[in-house]
Structures are given as C-alpha cells and as structure tokens.
TrEMBL record, chain A:
<protein>
    <submittedName>
        <fullName>Uncharacterized protein</fullName>
    </submittedName>
</protein>
Length: 77, 302
C-alpha cells in the first residue's frame, strides 16, 4: 500500500489535506474501514501533527482513501 | 448594494485576523443563532462561471469528481453528489430538440443557468427519515449531517424529493451542503454566495430574502419577463406537499422541470399512514380469503 508523510493542514468532516515536505498538497478521505473516526482528524490539524498515511487510490475522484494514519513517533491507529 | 459603514474600518490588505461579523460587510446581514437564514438564487443573473462550485469545493475540501466530459453542454459536473454540493446547470433552450440555435434575438440568450444546491427544507424529509438523528436543524434553521452519528444507512437518500443528499462509497457516510455551518458560526457568509460575482446567489435572513425576491420578480415583470416566478417561497411551486418552504429558494423563468427541479415535491412522511393502512387492509383481506378457502375445503371433507 502506498504511503505519504506530511502535516495535516485542513480538516473538513472526514476529508483532510496533507502537505508533504516537497510542499505538494494532497486530499485524503478517511476510508470506511480505517480504524479511526473523523473527529480524530481535527486535533491532528490543530497540533499540526506530522503523520504517516497509508492510502489507496480512488476511481473517478481526485483524492486518496486514507486506510491507516499514524502520528510519526507514536504507534499507528 | 451600498457599502456598509464598517467597511471603512478595514482599509488594509493584510488583516490580523477574521473581521468580526464579516457577513455584515459582504452580505449586509449579521449572523445570529436563533434566526432563519437561507439562499435566494436569482437564475436570471447567473453567468455560469461556476465560481460557486469552486468556492464550495475549496472551503469544504471536497475532491473533484466525475472526471472527464459529460457531453451535456458546458456542464461537466453532472449532478449534486456526496462530493459536489453546488451544481451549475446549463440548459440550452433555443433551436429544435434543445440544441443551441445559431440565431438569437438581439440581446437575448438561449441559455438558462442555475446554481443548484440543498434546499434546506423547512420540513426536511431527509431529517425525518434519518433513524440515528445524524441530520439535524441547526441554530440557523439549516439542515446538516453530523458525520460522527451518520451510520450510512442511506434512508435520507430516497427521502429527499430533490435528489440532493448522497452516501459516499469511500467513507460510507451521507454528505450534502451544510450552508457553510462552520462559516456561519464564525460570522462569515457562505463561500458560494461570497464568491458569486453577479450576486445570483444571495445569502441572508429568510424573510428579508423573500421580500427582496418578490420585488425582483415585480421588476422583471415590468421589464418584459412575464415568466419570472419564485420556486420555494411559501405557497409557491416547490413549497408543496407539506414541505413548508425552502430556505434555499430560486427565481426561475421556465418550468421547474427544465432546471431538473420537481414541479410539485412532496414530503414522503405524508405517505406513511396511507401505505400502512393499505398494507394492513391487504393483510386483513388475505386473512379473510384464506379463512374462507380453508373453511370451504373443511366443509367439503366433512
Ligand atoms: S433538499 Fe433534500 S437534502 Fe436538502 S434539506 Fe431538503 S430533503 Fe434534506
Ligand atoms: S458564481 Fe454566481 S454567476 Fe457564477 S455560476 Fe455560480 S451562481 Fe452563476
């Protein structure tokens, strides 16, 4: 599964924007099978936390499905 | 619209933060809980620029969807969906079969454009159908889905008479326009209305918008547009079938169906009692018929 690391800069419902070290921003949607809820995303944005996202591609959508998010330096969830 | 006197207090380009009650400066209305807010969409001034669609996607961090060309005029958005909460419809009216003509009367256009959105119905059928209470009425009299409570059952989808709310297969939750609930709480005008360059989308207090819309219809009638009418105001088309009124209402110049709006939407809850009664009557009828047939076969045997 592809992985991307970066900082969560925008959160709306289950959607978030991740900005990588190269400055590129990508839109992710928390997948239905991800072990996490949308309300856990806002604190990540407030902390400007550095996270590692395992994701899958989507059909007919410019965005990725986040399957697993782990805060860098903490265990995954 | 004249400039709000408070606008002179903020002449600089770089602001230290959000202007308090910014909507007073941009929409001429102060947003306060307990009041009723909505959109008045005047389709006669829509130029089809899709700034509203883009502003909505930007603010709500919604992904681009329906990639590719639909082949339907300049409309490549297609329809409202879980990822598209504003949809600018392009209707080509002149020529045979709806195909754009090459000749037009001077200063006239064969285009009808309308920025469609959730209607934030007064008696919202989606909310009535929701078994978890995820859909609720906010303190601004708008209808919003609470994402942490939605279980993705999809009951709201067929309940909506306008085909607005949609369950996303990606996160399994229902999504639709929130009338920028987060912006309203911060005193900001919704993103689409703020971005609209022609004020086709106007945000404000519902009673003020309804009065303004009536005036606009009168002006259009005077100017020789006799077909202009409101859709979704109390007693008008669109506010039928016990929906009450629509907080997001429209000024149209052709039949509602031309814009893909239902002519007489209804509240599905009105059909619960008749369907239950007809179901019970059918069961009772079948029970009587079975009793009669079993009784007849018993009589034959004895
Ligand atoms: S238009 Fe549909 S989704 Fe919007 S409030 Fe009315 S019933 Fe609900
Ligand atoms: S921003 Fe205004 S003018 Fe542009 S498409 Fe939307 S409603 Fe029409």
């Amino acid at each position: 599964m592809p992985v991307r690391e970066g900082v969560v800069t925008i959160v709306q419902e289950s959607r978030f924007q991740l900005v990588g070290d190269d400055g590129s921003a990508h839109l992710f949607i928390l997948g239905r099978n991800a072990a996490g809820e949308a309300d856990q995303l806002a604190p990540l944005q407030r902390r400007q936390a550095r996270v590692r996202v395992e994701y899958a591609r989507t059909r007919n959508l410019i965005g990725f499905v986040a399957e697993k998010i782990s805060v860098c330096g903490e265990s995954g969830r | 619209m004249t400039m709000h006197p408070r606008a002179a207090d903020f002449p600089q380009s770089d602001l230290p933060g959000v202007i308090p009650h910014e909507s007073e400066l941009t929409a001429g209305v102060r947003i306060e809980p307990g009041r009723s807010y909505g959109f008045f969409t005047d389709t006669t001034v829509c130029i089809g620029c899709k700034a509203c669609e883009v502003a909505c996607k930007e603010w709500n961090n919604l992904p681009a969807d329906n990639l590719g060309l639909t082949g339907h005029s300049y409309d490549n958005t297609g329809a409202l969906s879980a990822n598209t909460w504003r949809h600018v419809a392009f209707v080509e009216t002149s020529g045979c079969g709806g195909v754009r003509d090459t000749v037009e009367a001077p200063f006239q256009s064969g285009w009808l454009m309308m920025s469609d959105v959730c209607k934030h119905c007064h008696n919202a059928p989606c909310l009535e159908a929701c078994p978890t209470g995820a859909l609720f009425k906010t303190e601004f009299d708008t209808v919003v889905v609470q994402q942490d409570i939605c279980n993705g059952c999809g009951y709201c989808v067929p309940a909506c008479p306008f085909g607005v709310v949609d369950v996303s297969p990606v996160d399994g939750k229902a999504h639709k326009c929130t009338l920028c609930y987060d912006r309203l709480k911060g005193g900001l005008e919704p993103a689409c209305a703020k971005a609209c360059p022609t004020d086709s989308i106007q945000f404000g207090e519902l009673s003020v918008l309804q009065a303004r819309a009536e005036e606009r219809v009168a002006v259009l009638h005077e100017r020789g547009v006799p077909g202009a009418y409101l859709y979704g105001t109390p007693g008008a088309p669109g506010a039928t079938g016990d929906l009450g009124h629509l907080n997001a209402f429209f000024l149209l110049t052709a039949r509602p169906e031309v814009y893909n709006l239902p002519a007489a939407p209804t509240r599905p809850a009105n059909r619960v009692a008749p369907s239950l009664a007809s179901g019970l009557a059918a069961v009772a009828g079948l029970a009587v018929a079975a009793a009669f047939l079993l009784g007849a076969s018993d009589r034959r045997r004895s």
